[in-house]
Amino acid sequence: MPGLSGAERTTTVVIGTGLPGLAIATELRRRGVDSIIVSRLESPGGQPQKPAHQRCDDAEAASIQERNEILRHLRNYASSHQLDIRSDTSAVLLDKMGPGAEASLHRWAVHTPDGVLLADHIVLTRCAHSQLRRMLTDLGISIGTNLVAAMRAIGIYLVGVGELITPTPKEVLRQAKVVGQAISAKVYPDSVPSVLTGSFPALPAI
Q1: Cα 162 from Cα 187, distance rounded (Å)
Q2: pLDDT given at position 167
């Protein structure tokens, strides 16, 4: 794969700088896993991929204040711990690296207008299930009936992505913790390290 000599290397690329992206980036940082957060994933036609259908019921209206409070805490954490958030950078292409690739520990090359990011894990935070299935098919990956399992097997994780509706803020935090633990266990297979720094002060219990 040409042009990888100057690529940046990280453990995880998080795609999406909203609440789900900040939640998983914070969880990874607390577990000692480095990440780079980019704004979005472009579709093959060059347009940003649309999120799954949004909730428009009373439950969503009631959660706006909660979501804003969580976002405030996550942004404060991101700022104080200098998370690598690139709000003006989008991913334009995901390449799965084959055997013998230059970076043997990195399974993915994430192409952006600013260069290539090499990572072993990718977290998607805005993508409809139909788009995910199409993306995996384009990569030549057999999906079967369990989309999430197929994605995890190749190092792609979902946070904040629902089949029909957008998950609630509490569900997003739960997903971030589950995915953070799964990635941390891959990075540190012998012993999962204790949380390094920071916390979610005053966030609702899950």
Answers
A1: 26
A2: 85
